[in-house]
Amino acid sequence: MIAPDNAIPVESLNRCREEFIEILSHVLRNQVAAMGGYADLVATSGELNADQTLFLERVQAGTDRLNRMLPALIDLMWIEAGIPLRQQSVALDQVAAEVVADLEILAASRNIQIRLAVAEPLPDIRGDAARLKQALTEIVRNACVYSPLESSVSVEIWGDQKAVYCAIADQGIGINALDQDLIFDRLYRSADQRVREIQGSGLGLTLANRIVRAHHGELKVVSQLDQGSIFTLAIPITAP
Question: Using CA atoms, how far apart are residues 32 and 130, in angstroms rounded to an integer?
């Protein structure tokens, strides 16, 4: 098929998408920062009555939620815009080791041990190391946050001739059967009160799933309430 003379090159379209997202993210960050700044200014401007204090607390809470959501939301926009991932040789075990190291403080604050096990030899995959690290971070962080104190999280990595696999298992509150089909949807939050009490963007698993899919991979979950969850991702060694 011959492209028409006025067809826009793919590279130009990608640059336009990138510029649009950069501008939008800049505007959003500035607006949220301004909201927080004005809220702080009001809080220190003088004595407030009960209603004013309540309204201000709601504004500050909303601003905090936006600040937590924005990074994941912007990253999700990048992925869903179809902007090509950086392609390089990736050792998934090294990426996982970095994730475990980055989350040591969070895990230690809850007396949780993160155990990393790698079955060698492990083939490299082609993909975007930074994005894959982001996906693993979201899943392992969730495992730590939703697990009870003084428990453990395991990260197991192995491979075969087709793909490299990573299974993250926790001893947390688990996910009921109805929610398991919905947890990768944007902003989905379980009706379980224990989940709602934990602050989060509501986009972490959505982002992780989109990143895995952008690598032509698959992310699955097996879970039982009050028993824990196992998230397993598979990344093909050679993308189709």
Answer: 26
In total, the chain counts a number of residues equal to: 240
Pick from 6-10, 54-58, 140-144, 161-165: least confident? 6-10
**Listed ranges 15-29, 38-52, 177-191; the one with the highest mean pLDDT:** 38-52
Q: Please give the model's pTM, rounded to 2 decimal places.
A: 0.72
Residue ranges of domains in the chain? 10-80, 88-236
Between the alpha carbon of residue 123 and those of residues 23, 91, 161, the distances in Å are 39, 7, 8
Centre a 10 Å sphere on the Cβ of residue 170 and count the other Cβ atoms it contains. Answer: 27
Instruction: Give yes or no for residue 2 having a pLDDT over 50.
Output: no
Class of domain 88-236: alpha beta
